Amino acid sequence: MNLTSPFSLALATIVGLSLFGVPVGYAMIGGSVLYLYLKGMDMGAAAEQLLNGTYSSFLLLAIPLFILAAAFMSSGSVLDRLLRFCNAIVGRFPGGLAQVNVLQSIVFASMSGSALADAAGSGKLMQAMMTKDGRYTRSFAAALSAVSAVIGPILPPSIPLVLYALVSGTSIGFLFIAGVLPGLLLGAVQMVLIHALAKRRGFPLEEPVPLREMPRITRDAFPALMLPVILLGCLYSGITTPTEAAGLAAAYALLISTVLYRSLRWGEVYRALATSARVSVSIGVLIAGAMVFNYVITSENIPRTLSTMLSGLDMSPVGFLLLVNLLLLVLGAFLEGSTIILVILPVLLPTAVALGIDPVHFGVVCVLNIMLGLVTPPYGLLLFMMTRIAGITMRELLADVVPFLAVMLAALAVVTLWPGFVLWLPRLSGYTG
To answer: What b/e readout covers 159-172, taking b as 16+ CB neighbours within 10 angstroms?
Structure first.
């Protein structure tokens, strides 16, 4: 590569601005504008691509609505009811509170779709609960909160899968349902490992919840537990589009939080709206920057060049997926997940399709890789977040993260090498891929 070419200078500008703390979205816009200037191209192309990327997609409206639903459902009363329900289900097993941590991540997946949001919200709460009275070490609780938060973005509604649908043109409904079994598999391998560690380390047992209490606990949590049922039911029955389903989820979350549970005051509703707006704007800027930079990548003919190069290697679909796994695990340890989806995957997708890899399967494999990157040393974002929350060193955290990372990589291998596992539910729902 010519280090003085417009594309090389644009890349250097993006990296340099990012290192100086400029948000990645703005850095990509700045580098792309520099590329257009150096190439003598119409500078208005940047604004055109930016507007096309953020305002022409009805699907993108689902992201702020899912974020808003999560904000409404994160009130204390709702969280308490759901945690009591999780404790009643798995708290009696070895490593009870640790098992609750994993199950609550599966349950709360229907309310966030973001690993970082899960770790900062319910994960922070579980960190405090697990370390109370010294029942679990701070490093183990932090490691478990980090790895269990990875489950959320695999299960619907998943913001990363929405972004993949945007860049690939794949059905968001089929992507959502394709993520169900891989997400549950991640939870299952984590719970099995906790069971084994509980026997070896002597984790404390929680007091079993009497069976006579189960109907009351389930009844209290039932309205919140119905959110994913309503969301998926509307999607797969064809009653609503994904964006309309997201709006319905936000309205339902507001209704049960303010009217049924009465756990959300109107002042808190305003704060939830403001928080979701800030998060949505940051994601919107990132998407806009990625769309402009993707225009630069297309202008350089990089996707076709890469596809031709890989085709020349006579690579099998399995070999290509293993290469993608390695690439995304490395990138995920350094880059923010949304950036990878919006910038890197559009380059890889044409080759995957040319090799006969199903785009729904490819999307789930890629998103699972990217989420694992959040807990992959040395720079996984969830690792840094949990060291701050728990007040521990990275070395202490990694000692407890590594066993979980090993079993999650085994789950990734199953998802990668067995497409039928991922596509079984979508095909039951009418997917013909």
So the answer is: bbbbbbbbbbebbb
Tokens 């389903």, residue located: 245
CA–CA gap between residue 377 and residue 319 (Å, rounded): 24
- 24-27 long-range contacts, Cβ below 8 Å, gap at least 24? 24/286, 24/289, 24/336, 24/339, 25/282, 25/285, 25/286, 25/287, 25/288, 25/289, 25/290, 26/285, 26/289, 27/289
Amino acid at 354: A
Q: Residue with structure tokens 């807990």?
A: 375
Residues 6+ apart with CB under 8 A from 279: 64, 67
What residues in the chain have per-residue pLDDT under 50?
A: none
Strands (E) across 195-245 are located at: none
* pLDDT tens digits along 196-254: 888 787 777 767 777 778 788 888 878 877 877 777 777 767 777 777 877 888 888 88
Count Cβ atoms within 10 A of the Cβ of residue 228 and give its class: 0-12 exposed, 13-18 middle, 19 or more buried: buried
Is residue 372 a contact partner of residue 150, using CB atoms and an 8 Å limit? yes
Q: How far is CA 270 from CA 72, 73, 168, 275, 282, in A?
A: 10, 14, 35, 9, 19
C-alpha span between 123 and 187 (Å, rounded): 15
Cis before 378? omega within 30: yes
What is the distance between the alpha carbons of residues 117 and 201, in angstroms, rounded to a whole number? 30
What local confidence, expressed as pLDDT, does residue 330 receive? 79
Gap between the Cα atoms of 28 and 32, Å rounded: 6
DSSP one-letter string for 15-29: HHHHHTT--HHHHHH
- What's the rounded Cα separation, in Å, for the pair 82 and 93? 18
Alpha-carbon span 69 to 33, nearest angstrom: 36
> pLDDT tens digits for 126-178?
777 777 766 788 888 888 888 888 888 888 878 888 889 888 888 888 898 89
Q: Give 160-198 as a DSSP string.
A: HHHHHHHHH---HHHHHHHTHHHHHHHHHHHHHHHHHHH
First to last CA, the chain: 38
pLDDT for 116 equals 62
**CA distances for 354 relative to 68, 316, 317, 351, angstroms:** 38, 11, 9, 5
